[in-house]
Design goal:
- By secondary structure, this protein is mainly beta.
- It has a 15-stranded mixed sheet, with no helix packed on it. Strands 20-22-25-28-31-34-39-42-40-35-32-29-26-23 form a 14-stranded parallel barrel. Strands 5-6-7-8-9 form a five-stranded antiparallel sheet.
- A hairpin with a 2-residue loop joins strand 3 (46-48) and strand 4.
Length: 817
């Protein structure tokens, strides 16, 4: 945020200093305390024109506020609860209603930091500010709110059948019950055309005790105005709220709606039937502590809060046409409970419009591994159209690339254009990236049918969450952080988890049964711990997302498709590589593999010819192992621990910046497409620790950087090996180091383990049998692998040791391609 503001404000400060003469600058440091804690700034606060100015982000975050930058309008917006301040560059400071709250000062930039008036901002956000002139110290404290619990003494009853009421400040008028004073009211009875409206500055609690309310022209319960609204579900009672398809109340949008904070608790049950828009909605925070709540939302979201949503306990069963739970401007926090979400809405760019796209997928039942996704069972047109990456690879497989021999990329591009124009080649129009359009749903009114969607952050700390969504299952406009809990995710047409900011996994069980991309961060992804299983038709883990330069409204231009096809044909078509192999050199011919006099010496050392053949093995940007500009582009994946299993049709792990593995267990059933790689980066790739088994195609194979701190073995075969064929590694003592049964065909292996000793000789074989149990295809150690064909041996003489024949362009970058 600061970096964005800095570039914009740098010129503005000069104008500011000319327009507003500086009358005083503090010669001594100014100390700022918030709730007794000294705040540390990287740029010292200043006194400018008698206003104490402090760096914006530090003070806002200390106060629990959120900061947004709108580049189009050049406006900084600070939000805390229902209050917000907008500061437009060169303009005035206004509140959420557009009212000017100061015309005497404006934000300024000093030393690349945006400074704002501390008293004005703090007091507007509800804090008290004191200035000690003798010590140059600012003291900021939150105003103590004196709780008035007298409202609890006003006990009353509401019978929706007879429309009889008791208590102070409550009355029934025809079909509507009005509450105008704070109180605690027990609500029962049934009405097929009625509602409750609350309008008071005090707190109001409604104890639902066997009530059934249907309203023909609006919400069932409407907290129009209150200090805070409470819904208590009385133990052992069943309650139902149903609204109409048309409303006569403009501000309300759900059978249970609150304009202020809403809290739901109790051990009873509540069924909500939403026909107008959302199930439970509010313009402030929504907090659910317990209860058994079922929401059927015909049009909109299950739960929709303008501010934040916090789930502490209870059981939520949500079926919605829109999002399951949405926070319009704030965060979603899950601290416990069980949440079951099913979304059923149509979305823009839906792959349901692609002929032959399956409603489900087949699973490959394996005796030792349980149910596992087999991407080879997907219909061909599904694999062709799932995503841009798979689409290009499939188009490439249908082209006779020999007609492009000795052509440059530019010449091949022009030839492809001519073929399309003449009807010799079809690329099915444009290849859609539906996720680009779906991601925009966070900040637009476009149709969205996600599981959890927050405009800002999502924090999952505990609880059990089951999501079957049409769109992304979990999506945040900024940070997503998993600190615990159990997540079971099935995303029919979107990503399992997607964060527009950083994504952190610190603990918890994450099972993504089906998705396009499994877990995506538009910025930095860090996995410190947790148990993660991913099945994806695109990348398993992705940092960076799709580049916007090739997309317009979520659709890739055909000229970009042709250009990328040309690059693949010239630089990295797997078929061309295979055509250069001797006809009898294939994994089934053990004798020929063991000889391989011209391609690989028996001891695994590189011959001069092979060294020349693999000169492009890891790409010019990656192989040197030094940090590049791409490594610092704000996109990265760092894995420090945890257990990760990925079955991906595209890149298993794809970083548009760098990839760093320092620990954990990582098992990758990677792609079969020649245009993808088990591990893919635009920048460097470091393996410094952990246990990594990665298999997949070798058409665009990328390997770790040679300055990795842990030994890595890389094996490339001349032809693909059938799925469920065991691959095994033994050391020079005959001890099993690794035994793995991939769920798909494979042609390359990347293996790294702390057990790989330098200068030891390792023998690779495939096709044998193992005598121990396996989990996710990996057999437990000690394991005795018997039989099979020996591929060859390799000496771990370098950090990155290779076995096999390598040709074409490997590790060419273009993560997310």
């Amino acid at each position: 945020m600061k970096k964005v503001l800095c570039s914009i404000f740098s010129v503005f400060i000069l104008l500011f200093l000319m327009s507003f003469p500086i009358t005083s600058l503090a010669e001594e440091n100014i100390n700022v305390y918030y709730e007794g804690e000294l705040l540390v700034f990287d740029v010292e606060p200043q006194i400018i024109n008698n206003f104490t100015m402090v760096p914006a982000r530090t003070i806002f975050e200390a106060m629990g506020a959120k900061v947004k930058w709108d580049e189009e309008t050049q406006t900084v917006t600070v939000k805390k609860k229902k209050k917000s301040i907008s500061m437009t560059i060169g303009g005035q400071i206004t509140n959420q209603d557009g009212e000017v709250i100061s015309s005497e000062t404006v934000p300024v930039v000093l030393n690349d930091r945006t400074l704002v008036p501390v008293r004005l901002i703090s007091e507007f956000l509800g804090a008290q500010v004191e200035w000690n002139e003798n010590t140059n110290t600012v003291y900021i404290t939150e105003k103590e709110k004196i709780e008035d619990d007298s409202w609890k003494e006003n006990l009353g009853t509401i019978d929706m059948t007879s429309m009889e009421v008791s208590g102070s400040g409550v009355r029934a008028d025809d079909k509507i019950v009005y509450i105008t004073e704070g109180g605690d009211f027990e609500v029962s009875g049934k009405t097929e055309d009625g509602m409750i409206i609350v309008n008071t500055d005090e707190k109001v609690k409604l104890r639902l005790s066997g009530v059934d309310i249907t309203n023909s022209d609006g919400p069932a319960i409407y907290f129009e105005n209150t200090d805070k609204g409470y819904i208590t579900l009385t133990d052992g009672t069943d309650n139902t709220l149903t609204d109409s398809e048309q409303y006569n109340y403009e501000d309300a949008s759900a059978p249970l709606f609150s304009d202020d904070n809403l809290e739901i608790k109790g051990n009873g049950s509540l069924i909500i039937n939403a026909n107008y828009k959302h199930g439970i909605a509010g313009d402030d925070d929504i907090r659910i502590e317990n209860g058994n709540i079922t929401i059927n939302s015909k049009i909109g979201d299950g739960i929709h809060a303008k501010c934040g949503v916090k789930i502490i306990g209870g059981t939520l069963n949500i079926t919605s046409d829109g999002d399951g739970i949405q926070s319009g401007e704030w965060n979603i926090t899950v601290d416990g409970g069980e949440i079951n979400i099913t979304t059923i809405g149509e979305i823009i760019g839906s792959r349901k419009n692609i002929a032959g796209f399956p409603n489900d997928f087949e699973r490959n039942e394996q005796q030792d591994d349980g149910a596992k996704f087999d991407s080879n069972t997907l219909p061909e047109n599904h694999r062709n159209n799932v995503n841009e990456k798979g689409g290009i690879s499939q188009i490439l497989n249908n082209i006779d690339t020999s007609v492009f021999d000795n052509m440059t990329v530019e010449e091949v591009t022009e030839k492809l254009k001519s073929m399309v124009e003449n009807g010799e080649l079809s690329i099915s129009g444009n290849i859609e990236d539906t996720q680009q359009t779906q991601d925009e749903g966070v900040t637009t009114n476009e149709k969205s049918s996600k599981g959890l969607k927050a405009a800002e952050d999502i924090y999952i700390n505990s609880g059990k969450i089951n999501i079957h969504s049409i769109d992304h299952s979990i999506h945040s406009g900024d940070i997503t952080e998993i600190n615990g809990g159990e997540l079971n995710i099935y995303s029919e047409e979107g990503k399992g988890m997607s964060a527009h900011g950083n994504l952190n996994v610190n603990a918890g069980d994450i099972n993504i049964e089906y998705s396009t991309e499994g877990i995506e961060s538009k910025a930095e992804m860090t996995i410190n711990s947790g148990n993660i299983h991913i099945i994806s038709t695109d990348d398993g883990l992705n940092a960076g997302g799709t580049g916007s330069d090739s997309m317009e409204h979520g659709v890739m231009d055909s000229s970009i498709i042709l250009e990328r096809l040309a690059e693949r044909i010239v630089n990295g078509n797997i078929d061309n590589q295979q055509n250069n192999m001797p006809p009898d050199f294939f994994p089934g011919n053990t004798e020929q593999i063991m000889q391989q006099p011209d391609s690989l010496p028996p001891n695994g050392e590189r011959s001069t010819d092979n060294e020349q053949n693999i000169s492009g093995f890891n790409g010019p940007a990656n192989f040197g192992g030094q940090r590049t500009d791409i490594d610092n582009n704000g996109h990265s994946i760092t894995i420090n621990g945890g257990y990760i299993y990925i079955d991906a049709m595209a890149d298993a792990i794809d970083s548009n910046g760098f990839l760093e593995v320092n620990g954990g267990t990582i098992i990758l059933d990677g792609p079969t497409s020649g245009g993808d790689s088990p591990l893919d980066t635009d920048g460097s790739m470091w393996i410094n620790g952990g246990y990594i088994v990665a298999v997949g195609s070798n058409g665009m194979l990328e390997i770790p950087s040679d300055d990795s701190k842990q030994n890595v073995l890389v094996v490339s075969l001349s032809e693909a090996v059938q799925k469920e064929t065991i691959i095994n590694i033994k050391n020079s003592s005959g001890e099993n180091i690794m035994t793995f049964k991939p769920s798909k065909e494979y042609q390359a292996l990347i293996f790294s383990s702390p057990d790989l000793d330098s200068d030891d000789i390792y023998t690779i074989s495939y096709g044998g049998t193992a005598d121990s149990e396996s989990i996710d295809g990996l057999y437990s150690q000690p394991s005795n692998c018997i039989g099979g064909a020996e591929v060859g041996s390799i000496t771990a003489s370098e950090t990155i040791s290779k076995l096999g024949t390598f040709g074409g362009r490997f590790g060419s970058g273009r993560g997310g391609f």
